């Protein structure tokens, strides 16, 4: 038997089936497969039951694992089937493509990045999927159906026909210089193999077949290959998914529908009815009633459609159209479901646990060494001080691992406020993390890359604004600066689509913290300010309408959101935003019909910010506390106004009098209604405040006037001035005693200012 | 006397005859044309056959195949996406008769779907064949043609259920006469339903199972929509005998752009988010705005279509709910229209309108 060349369609189930049939007929002594020769040692794993497709060969530079490439294989890939056949029949297998080491070396060919695969995308105008284009030219949008219909059902020797077609196409197509080098290498290996064997089988992309049979002088090939340096590379198997196969750029044009191909490959006959039965099952699993009658009708429709379109067999388009018309009732979601579960498929591959370490695991091991963080099975507490470089890197590593689903460290206490530079972690290594690392290695070859890919993916698929906001914080904590732009873009989109002002408000605090404390972690948060500004703008625009007709419950939620946003705005070092926010609060506070709680809260916030003087506050307080307002509303107002503590009442007699009068005037029946509200308000005050207020009320107006002058008299200015140097050092600027220091209003302002900043 | 709007089979009689003459593919029993020829009739062939529907080919293929598999067809879509138009032309091409029509309303009675009685005869002669008044559905069953049911989801649920036997057994029993009417081959039903009516009188699952659903979308691209509007405006102008007004492509493009932007809630350049009004702003409404503007221009203007002629019509189409839509329209005018330098004339006209 001579040598035979099988030009296949990458990931084409039709090719896969044909290749196996031909190999059975030919019984070659040796099999050459298009693929990186460095992976020859890994071929024997194919026999291992633990290696379940879809899987991918991962090649990477040992000194720089970020430069890596994947060669994915599904069960319906002709290469996979050929290798399996060879292993079963104890026939040696060799990969005979250009070594990956050549492609990676600095003097080598242009690299297409980690997304590059055995077949790079059409850069030079050569078709990515030549068989697919042949099929398209024949009027088929499903190349596999074309293969089945034209190549197999006509009973012609498939691979001869394909080789002839390719030869015809290549005569007129432009040549890709990279292809020429690869084919030179293929011919070189082929010549070597011919010396040892006679009966050779070659499985490669159909495109390359004409080049292998072309007669080219040995010295020309050698010249092409000469002078290439090799980088040091390593290979391993990693699990793959059909989803990744579908979105994979290298074969993008070929496998939009891995699930369909899987079905074509694994189903002998009744392709259409079986597919539609599966579709019905997918819908049933989601609670959509689907009867067998639906499947029958869909099958009939698919076949009629194929006839109408002049095709001998129904393809993916026909079954999809039929499923949409019969089973989906015009609901786009159901079609998406079928597309996700069935057409693409959710199958995840697996690799045996003895597989050589993936670069991701090596990267982690390397970092564990340099950061002196040993994986231990017993829990261990670690205090990290983020001002130290090594602790900062440790913290980032732990956060990144959490992002890729390896919770080696659990942050002990998410509470903030004890200082922004301390973190407490409990680390504990679980053996299953190793498996996770292998699974995650499809997302990247370093921890940082994988975490970036995962966060970006999560941002794209997240449904709510809150999810994306959480991711922004993850980016910050894990130091994933490259994930920022896509995450922020996703945030912007969600914010534009979200009509609920409270959702928008909920997003602001985390972003403000990121912007404010970003520099503690030396994160570059460019773009964040723009997004935050936009978010705040939307909140300001929508706040007015969000405050109308609220229930008590909703008012409390909104009050909390207002407080948080207010604190967040205080954190930001931007007068413009602060002004805008306070302007909005001022406008909203003036709206009629506000819930008492909100009105009181807004008045307090504005007063603390110096937007309202005490006279105005008294005026505002008086209105809700008059007879015209129901006492419950007044009590809510008081609650909103005083929620931060009662110090205000200790110092402002006029306010206290107003409140006192109002309380005294409430009649017996209404008092029962407001009592719980007042109890809640005053009960939250500090013990000392309550006593001070009680004393003042008990002393009566006249007594208080005397007491306050007495209080003022005992201030010892010299002793007060003694704290100023320390205070100056803390604040980072000189603090001097101004006129009127110690005046009640002055104290109030100072208290308000520290409240807004949120941290001393 | 001439009809204001001739039936599809009359208006396009020549095209139908031409297709029938050249059609050599097998025709399903009772069909005037082969399925492939019906698809050509609807989508046009670029030469003698004018396109009736501009949109995805696969939708029309699914619709025609559905009729060929003798499943009933349900056309779904927002108002103004040519559901009725498609169903009329399908009926005309398949059966050569688009007049068998039941208009679904909240008051549609079972008689409109099954049969009624001529009460004078019923009293005089008792229940006889002659006293029976057949519905369009019954007549379609007898003659083996396509019957159309407009706005199926407006019809009360109990009346909808009368369709189940018709669609599954293909027979309509008349117990009073102890007979039945069996559908002849070629009989089928095309129903249309409004997406916005979802939940009003939703189809029971038993009935739903008898229908294949085809959703007619709003046009995918601005160019496609401009083409639809231009074509229909020209046809309408002819059939309404409007004085010839050069349909200014710029104005049409502008109307289409405004409608698309408001409908999708985003400017065409994708930069600005907009609020969407309550109306659907379908191509049909764009067509009526332009036709209206042309009538204004012809009768009261200088015979050329100006911004002012369409401005009032657009505002009327957009502002369906004076409260909220008014805000949407004003906001759109002030934030988007005003910024566009070559839209000055329109901005002024729209503000005054």
UniProtKB/TrEMBL annotation, chain A:
<dbReference type="InterPro" id="IPR043737">
    <property type="entry name" value="DUF5682"/>
</dbReference>
<dbReference type="Pfam" id="PF18934">
    <property type="entry name" value="DUF5682"/>
</dbReference>
<dbReference type="InterPro" id="IPR050458">
    <property type="entry name" value="LolB"/>
</dbReference>
<protein>
    <submittedName>
        <fullName>Uncharacterized protein</fullName>
    </submittedName>
</protein>
UniProtKB/TrEMBL annotation, chain B:
<protein>
    <submittedName>
        <fullName>ATPase</fullName>
    </submittedName>
</protein>
<dbReference type="InterPro" id="IPR011704">
    <property type="entry name" value="ATPase_dyneun-rel_AAA"/>
</dbReference>
<dbReference type="InterPro" id="IPR027417">
    <property type="entry name" value="P-loop_NTPase"/>
</dbReference>
<feature type="domain" description="ATPase dynein-related AAA">
    <location>
        <begin position="73"/>
        <end position="211"/>
    </location>
</feature>
<dbReference type="GO" id="GO:0016887">
    <property type="term" value="F:ATP hydrolysis activity"/>
</dbReference>
<dbReference type="Pfam" id="PF07728">
    <property type="entry name" value="AAA_5"/>
</dbReference>
<dbReference type="GO" id="GO:0005524">
    <property type="term" value="F:ATP binding"/>
</dbReference>
<dbReference type="InterPro" id="IPR050764">
    <property type="entry name" value="CbbQ/NirQ/NorQ/GpvN"/>
</dbReference>
